[in-house]
Amino acid sequence: MSYAKRDEKDTIIFVTPEDSKILADSDKLEQENDQDNGHMGAVNEETGEINWDCPCLAEAIKPPCGEFFKSAFSCFVNSKSEPQGQDCIDHFMAMKECYQSYPEIYLKDEDNETVNNEDSSNTNNDEASALDNSDESSVTSTQ
């Protein structure tokens, strides 16, 4: 019978030989499947080739800004500069401009809240400035 025991900050897991074999077999099977399917991540570390079919890149390469992302990411992966990607700033700036052109697609709700909060604080500051200026004009008009 397998079980786990907590010892202050550590968790100790006791596994039967049968369960251990099942876990080891499933890990081997998962590794083989990853290799067979080419799921080595976004970049093959041996060849440096970008796996555009990687699920981790699926959303980023979709239109309308997918080509900008591909250009920036390819530049970064192939960059020889120190720090890596320093020579890709123009590509990333173009990608950023594209993202900003489509806020309805690329602006997340939490980002939108930040923008709205900044806008409202600017509005509050503008209103406060207007009140300050109106006080000054009333003071100067009474003198």
TrEMBL record:
It is a single-pass type II membrane protein. GO terms for biological process: protein import into mitochondrial intermembrane space. One of its GO terms (cellular component) is mitochondrial intermembrane space. Keywords: Disulfide bond, Mitochondrion, Oxidoreductase, Protein transport, Redox-active center, Translocation, Transport. Residues 65-100 form the CHCH domain. It comes from the Eukaryota. Residues 109-143 are annotated as: Disordered. Signal peptide: none annotated. Residues 114-127 have a biased composition (Low complexity). It is found in: Mitochondrion inner membrane. GO terms for molecular function: protein-disulfide reductase activity. Coiled coil: none annotated. Its main location: mitochondrion. It holds the Pfam family CHCH. This is Mitochondrial intermembrane space import and assembly protein 40. It comes from Rozella allomycis (strain CSF55). The lineage of its organism: Eukaryota, Fungi, Fungi incertae sedis, Cryptomycota, Cryptomycota incertae sedis.
